[in-house]
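Box 3.1 — From sequence to structure: NADH-quinone oxidoreductase subunit I
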Amino acid sequence: MLGWTKGLAFTLKNLTKEKVTYDYPNEPLPLPDRFRGIQKFYPDKCIVCNLCANICPTDCISLTGKANPDPEKKGKVIDTYDINFEICILCDLCTEVCPTEAIVMTNNFELAEYSRDELFKDKVWLDENDTSVRKENKV
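Predicted structure (token representation):
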């Protein structure tokens, strides 16, 4: 009998407390500032140094470039930049090593798709991924 009254007292006491659940699809979750989400890519900043592709532990980044068509300018111009989010572990190493900050992490984490083929994102999609860019990375 004592256990039943303790349980009832605990239940009644917690009915008046503030709820800790969220109405997730309708109400965004509060995320910390340093949350590592999907990357945003700035193709105009990229110098095609391949540091991000070389440091990636899962080899999910592919980056290709070509010689600059303007003979007065040296360096390379980005041709393709693809990330396979099927195997990306969002480790933030690609953003840490980028010398020009062409790739930054966002707070966006929603990448649910019906097909694995849709998890392969190109530079156009990554450039348009402007939702929830971290405060320190806003341009």
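Summary of the box: The radius of gyration is 22 Å.
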